[in-house]
Amino acid sequence: MGPLQKLETSLDEVLHKKAPFQLPVNGKRGLAYALWWIALVAGLLQLWAAWMFWHAAHTINKLVDFANSLSSVYGTTPFYGALINAVYGVVRIFSDYGGGIGSLIWALIGSVIGLYFLFQAREYFLPGASHTPPKADHKVTVEKTTEKTAK
After folding, report:
1. What is the pTM of this model?
2. Contact 113, 9 (CB under 8 A)
3. How does DSSP classify residue 95?
4. Are 121 and 35 contacting, i.e. CB atoms less than 8 angstroms apart?
């Protein structure tokens, strides 16, 4: 058993089997159905964001080339433009503007919530899984309905 399999097993134990709150069967089924659409929308948004980052990187690269050419014209070496860009990247990581420890904490919280919902609906995505609720839940519902009709 590889390390990822051990991690998956332990997450399934904590987030599904021993979770203090279990989603109802209809909730799990609805979540499993909605996750396909959510994944599609998120994938398209990520594709768009990747294209925007690629475009921004090329624009910034052109600006850095322009700054380097200006520094070459005025007698300095282009090494300082790259150094300033690196310092800006480090400052950005630790600033409140799009970075910082707060972003890390919120990302971790979001990951735990996402993993909780993923492991709650996991049984619908396993190989050989049916898209109907387990038969035991269905049988209990049928027995309760039969008892009500018999009375």
Report:
1. 0.44
2. no
3. S
4. yes
Output the pLDDT for position 124.
Answer: 79
How much of the chain exceeds pLDDT 70, in percent? 62
Q: Please give the Cα distance from 44 to 51 (Å, whole number).
A: 11
Give the contacts of 123 (CB within 8 A, at least 6 positions apart): 28, 129
3-state secondary structure 102-141: HHHHHHHHHHHHHHHHHHHCHHHCCCCCCCCCCHHHHHHH
* Distance, CA of 144 to CA of 148 (rounded, Å): 6
First-last CA distance in the chain: 53
How far apart CA 67 and CA 62 sit, in angstroms, is 9
